[in-house]
Every structure is written in structure tokens, then in C-alpha cells.
Amino acid sequence: MTQVELPRNTPPEDNRSGNQTVVQKHPKAWKWYDYFTFNTDHKVIGLQYLVTAFVFYLIGGLMAVVMRAELATPDADLIDPNLYNAFMTNHGTIMIFLWIVPSAIGGFGNYLVPLMIGARDMAFPKLNAIAFWLNPPAGLLLAASFIFGGSQSGWTAYPPLSLVTANTAQSLWILAIVLVGTSSILGSLNFVITIWKMKVPSMKWDQLPLFCWAIMATSVLALLSTPVLAAGLVLLLFDINFGTSFFKPDAGGNVVIYQHLFWFYSHPAVYLMILPIFGIMSEVIPVHARKSIFGYKAIAYSSLAICVVGLFVWVHHMFTSGTPGWMRMFFTISTLIVAVPTGVKIFGWVATLWGGKIRFTTAMLFALGLLSMFVMGGLSGVTMGTAPFDMHVHDTYYVVGHFHYVLFGGSVFGIYSGIYHWFPKMTGRMVNETLGRIHFILTFIGTNLTFLPMHELGLQGMPRRVAMYDPQFVSLNQICTIGAYVLAVSVIPFTINILWSWVAGAKAGDNPWNALTLEWTTSSPPLIENWEELPVVTHGPYDYGLNHSLEVQPSAATQVGA
Amino acid sequence: MQQIPVSLWTLLAGIVVTVLSIWVGQNHSLLPIQASQQAPLVDGFFNVMLSIATALFLVVEGTIVIFLVKYRHRPGDDTDGVHVEGNLPLEVFWTAVPSIIVLCLGIYSVDVFNRMGGFEVGSHPHMPHSPAHVAQMPGSAIAATLSDASLDESEIPSPAPIPKIGIGATPTELGKPADLVVNVTGMQFAWLFDYPESGVNTGELHVPVGADVLLNISATDVIHSFWVPQFRLKQDAIPGIPTQLRFVATKPGTYPVVCTELCGGYHGSMRAQVVVDTPQEFESWLSENRIAQQQDMQKAVASNPADLSTSEFLAPHAQQMGVTTATLAQIQK
């Protein structure tokens, strides 16, 4: 409805000249209903991603709660095992493809990248809006698949199981993933071009915020790996519906080739889910510790190193599959190497804390929670990366424990941290810190209660993806189930806090955290087209402790035009 | 960092962390009992990794906690922290130390994998036909041996077709045929064990303690995975691709066989047992089953099921299940 009034999206060269003439005709702020339309403003799209993803997070979380309730007893007594598998499959799918990836890359990436590099929008705003609007249909396809029983072959969809189970639901599932994959490719292309070409001329490459480095590495990884997944899934779709036999062993197909195609994307997908979060960490920790980031270059380069090495580790998901011995060893060693750049980041953040003035805001608490739990997930990851030990724990609850420490203790904590940190910028209002702390404590306790016992379960002999299990594992499973209930409850104070603060929170001001990156130099929430006059970068993004006069930047940038 | 003096406290903390980590690595009770020759190798490797992980965990988490307490924001202090952008020696140190650790773990894992039998001849990178074997997977086991023989005649001759994926002979057993070969078939939702040398088919795996056992693993429908936690061994059963596990069971007892690859709604109930017998027990079990199944065979040959009525056909089976004709009639009513 308001598309006629959409702001022009001008290349950076035109911005400066254009500004002098158009300064008095700045578009008005968006109305609430603009957020429900096909809007090309990167900030609107960012919020659309975040809110949509959070709704999917609640849906995926409810599925997890039902699964944990089922697993409170060894027998399959609560729901039908096939429905359990449908929940298990869609829990994983939704959390990965409709919550973590779209919120971390689509949400924070879209909202923050142009603001952080001093651009008025992304390079291709319409493409950006198209990328977002591919997500809701994907969610609807997954929802529709439940009419046909839901896809039940796990988020990995290994054939032959995926070829013989719930064919219609499996086909809908494939279409949904291909849609979000397309969205991811379009979004990534946009990020690469935007960061490469559109940062303000006054910003040097070593003044680029680390979040943008992380998004850059993520986007390159997504561009290289996502097409391979799409190819594999389309072949699977053909096998199911059009009588081909790429993956049918009784007709000359090979099931292991699918696993290679799948994991060539889906291992890098782990980094798609954690690299932007690492970027958020590198932004949140310096601000709330009042310290410059320790080892800017090391952290930036380690993102790129993870991006490169991450492309060569996928077979560690296939150590017990059709994988010859030499390949098991090659991928053991490449997997172990990923630990090094990851360690560099962890140590860099810990060292950033040294000598700081740490403020325990909710954003910082979640960042510190991430830091402490990611160590756990990283260490268990190193053990599993070795083929001899993975022979024992592969496809057990040890793996489930490990990747939830990385993806829940890591990615979800990072998303929470980012929401608490940038909420004042996005809405112009502060969150309630008391509710935030309650949210943090419940989430932290719930996470450890749910996922720590899973390591022992796996080591002792409990396989993953089961609706029924050996009664000897019942007590540890009950602890996990209680933890999952705590996690479910923890969402309540968060949701109340966000909704209430959005409407009635205290006014935030332009720069409530006294941060130094460019997004804090504009108003909260930022104007359409972000600034009246583009900011000029005069210092690094993390130059805390150098007595930069923090008021200079905001007044120079925003007050002039306003 | 350089402002912290290397005091007695850090030295003491280092000693405590080291001692505690080694203790944790040796005294955790996280793993089930060891019942195969490979289990102590895997556990030894895990214990080392657990010790290193414990040490790193304590150091990193301890540092975080100390920093959080020491450098917390005090009310009324609105200044920033000291400006430090980095410290090259420190960064080199914490890049080099993990690099060395993972390098050592990598070498150790190759060694463990070799001693477990992961590098049996044929699955070595220098043997050209090992990837080729993957490619020609729909071929039958016989076709695979023929092409293998033509490709590489220097290979040590073996009596049975040996799949090249999985765990093979350990270096000490290399070139010797296995004492016992069992064909393992996974299907929704059960395991079948076939003893080709004695013609026994069962749903429960029996192996004699101390024997060198070779499992030829296959699947009929979807992918399954054969895991005995007490053996620390796992190998997928893949339709179209033969795989194997070779092991020596070291401890008599009954252990679970668990399917660990999602195979459908009742994946969680796809469980069987492996019974590690003494050699005498194993022999008597084998002969009992051989006799029982030979009788079945004669029956099957003698009567054509198509010529029999339903109750005639079911009668011997019902008897076997301990169901009398009277109860059968009652049920049929």
C-alpha cells in the first residue's frame, strides 16, 4: 500500500550529493502496518526476520517440549512414534532453517550491516525483501506437511528412509528447504556486495566492525555450500515423485552420495549458525566490558579461517557410514584443525574482559553465558571429531548434548544477547533489566539441566532420535525433561519483557550503552535511510579507553539534520 | 596479561588443575564396561582427551570467573577500561598451544584407529580399489571379489569376500582369516544373524569369548547402524554397500545391540542382544540351534504350504509357540 512512497535506494556515491538537495524532504517514519507488507527498508526486513523467526522458535520449542515429555518415560506412551519422529524432524528443521539462520543472518545481518558500515540500505533492497518473503511460505509448507503425517526422516532426510516414509510430507519438506535455501543464497549475495562496495569511504577495512566480518565470512560460506544441498534435495525430490533412482540402492542408486551432498552444505550450516553469533559476541563484549576487543585482526581472520576450513570437514558426520578408513582419518585431522581458530576467538573474548569495567547488563549476561557454555560445546566437539571415539558416540545422545551446547548455549544465547543489546536501537526503548535477569537465570539453569546429562546418556549407550529407550536411562532422561520445562518457562519473562518494553519501556536515547560503532550515531529507532547526513569515521569501532568524546559522534551525525 | 606476576598462586593453580584433570580422566565412570579388544583403545584415547578437556575447561572457566569478579563495574566509576588492542606473543601462544594439542590428538587418533583395525589392507589410501569399491556398490559380493582380485593381485588372499568399509583386522591379525564369520542383516525393525558355516539363523548374536569375529553387515530396506556400546564399535548397515566389523570379545556376558541410525517409527525399539559365551557354551548353543533349524528345514521341504489349509499350515508353528490346538480354536472363534 505504501510502496509508492518507498525511499529511493541510491548508490553510495549519489548519497552525498543527493543529501544536500533532499535533506529537507526526509521520508516519514514507518507505520506499524508497514511491517506487514513487502517493504524494502533493511531495518523493516531485519525486524520482520527477527519476529517471524521468534514465532517459529516458539513452535519448534513446543515440539521439543512434547518430545521431552514423551521421553520422561522409557515407553512410547504419550504420542505415536511416527508423530514423535515428525516432531523430531521438524524441531530440527525449524530451529535451524526458520529460527537461528534467519534471525542471526537475516535479522541481525539486515538490521545492522548497513547501519554499521554507514550505508543507507542494502545493495539490492528488493532482492532483500524477496529473500525474506520466501520464509513464510516455507513455514506454511512445513505446517501443511503435518496434514500428511509430517516428514519423519530426520532433518538429514537420509534415503532410503526418506524415500519410503510419508512421501507427500517429505516432498513438502524438501520444497520448504529449497525455498529457505534460495532465500539464504539471495541474502548472502546481498551481504557480500553491500559490505564490499557500500561502506562509507571514511571507514578503513580494519575499522569494519567484527560483526560485518563475520557476516562476510558467513555469506561466502552460504554461497559456496547452499547450492550443493539444493542439488541433493532436488535429486531426492525426483526420486520420490518422478521415478528416478539417484539414491535407490535396488535400482543402481547410491545412498552415501546423498550423505556427501547433504553434509557438504550442512556442516558449513553449523558455521552459518555460529559465525554471525561470534560477530554479535565481538560487538556486545567490548561495549559492556568498556574494553577494546583483544586481537581485532585475529578475530576477523579466524572467521575467514573457519569459513575456509569449515568447507573441508563434512565427512566427520559420516565416520560410521560408507566411509573408507583413510577418509575417516583425513577428516578427523581437518576437523580438529577447526578448533584452533575457534579457540583464538574464545581466548580473545576472555582477554577482552581483562582490565575492563564489566557491566552485568542482560545483554552481557547472555554473552558471558555463551562464552562459558561454548567452551563446553567446543571441547566435546573435539572429542567427537576423532573417528576412533566417534565410532562409539556417533548418533547417540552425546551428539545431541554437544550440538545443543553449541546451538542453544551458543547461537540462541547469542541471539538473546543481541536482542537485549540492540533492542534500544531498534525500538527506542530500554528493556526491563530485572525481567531480563530472570530470563537469563532460567535459561542458563535450564540449558545445563537439559543438555549436560545427555553426554552421559550417550556415552552409556542411548541412541538419539528414539521415542522409546532402555529403562536403565530413565533417571537422567527425567532430569533432561525437567530442564526442558525450565527452558519452556524461561521464554515467558522474555516475551513479556519484549512486548511490554516495546510499548512502554523507558526512552533509550540514541546511544544508551555509550558504544562506538556507527549504528549508535543515529536516532533510536533510526530514520528511514538511516542518517540525514552520513557519519564520518574518526576512530576504530572498539577504541574504548582512549577517551573518545562519545557525544561528538551522535551530535555530528544526527542532530545536524534533525 | 603481562601485569600478572607468575606468582606462587598461579603455580599452585597449575598443579591443582593438572592433578585434578588427570584424576578426572582416569576416574570418571562415564563409559560402560569394556568387552572387546578395541574398547580399551577407545577408552584410553577418550581418557586422554577428557583430561586435556578438563584442564582447558578449568583454566578458561576459572579465568572467566576471576575476571568477572576482579573487573566488575563499581558504582560511580564511569571510566573505560585500559586500552589494550592485543598482545602478539600471547596470541601466538594461544594459537600454537591448541595447534600442538590437536596435532598430537590427530596423530594419536591415527594410531588408535590403526590398532583398532581401521586400516586393514584394502581400505588404505594407497590401494586404488578402495574408493572404487564404493562406486561399484550395487554389485553383489561375488562381483566385488572378482574385480578386487583382478585389480590387485598382491593382496593377501582371503577365503571370504571382505567388505572394505568398517573395522577390519587389527595389525596382529592381518592376513589371517577370522575365526567366526557372521552375516548381520538389519531390517525394520530387527537384526538377523546368519552363521554361514553352520547354517544357523537367529535374532540373537552369540560369539565365543576370545574369538576373532567378522561381522558382514548389510541392510535390506533402509540404513541401520550396528552398535554394541560395550564393544565401542559401530558401523552403519547400508542397503547396497557391504560393511564389516571385526573384533575380539573379551568379557563373557550379555550386551545390547542397538540400532543408532534413524530407521522409522520404531527405531528406538530395534534392539537385540549379543551374548559373549565361553567357547564350550558357544559350541553347545550352536549345535542346539543347528539341530532345531535342520528339523525346520525338513518340514519346509516336505510340505508345500499351498496345499495346506490355514490351520494345518499354522499347526507346527503354533505348537512351537506353545499354543495348543484348543486355544487356537478358541482364538479363531
Automatic annotation (TrEMBL), chain A:
The keyword Ribonucleoprotein does not apply. The chain crosses the membrane at residues 47-67, 94-117, 129-151, 171-196, 208-238, 299-317, 329-351, 363-382, 402-423, 435-455, 475-500. It catalyses: 4 Fe(II)-[cytochrome c] + O2 + 8 H(+)(in) = 4 Fe(III)-[cytochrome c] + 2 H2O + 4 H(+)(out). Coiled coil: none annotated. It comes from the Bacteria. Keywords: Cell membrane, Copper, Electron transport, Heme, Iron, Membrane, Metal-binding, Oxidoreductase, Respiratory chain, Translocase, Transmembrane, Transmembrane helix, Transport. GO terms for cellular component: plasma membrane. It is found in: Cell membrane; Membrane. GO terms for molecular function: cytochrome-c oxidase activity; heme binding; metal ion binding; oxidoreductase activity. Signal peptide: none annotated. Residues 26-538 form the Cytochrome oxidase subunit I profile domain. InterPro entries: Cyt_c_oxase-like_su1_dom, Cyt_c_oxase-like_su1_sf, Cyt_C_Oxase_1, Cyt_c_Oxase_su1_BS, Cyt_c_oxidase_su1_bac. Residues 1-21 are annotated as: Disordered. Its EC number is 7.1.1.9. Pathway: Energy metabolism; oxidative phosphorylation. It is a multi-pass membrane protein. Its main location: membrane. PANTHER family: CYTOCHROME C OXIDASE SUBUNIT 1. Belongs to the heme-copper respiratory oxidase family. Cytochrome c oxidase is the component of the respiratory chain that catalyzes the reduction of oxygen to water. Subunits 1-3 form the functional core of the enzyme complex. CO I is the catalytic subunit of the enzyme. Electrons originating in cytochrome c are transferred via the copper A center of subunit 2 and heme A of subunit 1 to the bimetallic center formed by heme A3 and copper B. This is Cytochrome c oxidase subunit 1. It comes from Brasilonema sennae CENA114.
From TrEMBL, chain B:
GO terms for molecular function: copper ion binding; cytochrome-c oxidase activity. Keywords: Copper, Electron transport, Membrane, Metal-binding, Respiratory chain, Translocase, Transmembrane, Transmembrane helix, Transport. It is found in: Cell membrane; Membrane. Its cofactor is Cu cation. PROSITE patterns: COX2, COX2_CUA, COX2_TM. Gene3D superfamilies: 1.10.287.90, Cupredoxins - blue copper proteins (2.60.40.420). InterPro entries: CcO_II, CcO_II-like_C, Copper_CuA, Cupredoxin, Cyt_c_oxidase_su2_TM_dom, Cyt_c_oxidase_su2_TM_sf. Residues 177-288 form the Cytochrome oxidase subunit II copper A binding domain. Residues 22-120 form the Cytochrome oxidase subunit II transmembrane region profile domain. It holds the Pfam family COX2_TM. GO terms for biological process: ATP synthesis coupled electron transport. GO terms for cellular component: plasma membrane. It catalyses: 4 Fe(II)-[cytochrome c] + O2 + 8 H(+)(in) = 4 Fe(III)-[cytochrome c] + 2 H2O + 4 H(+)(out). This is Cytochrome c oxidase subunit 2.
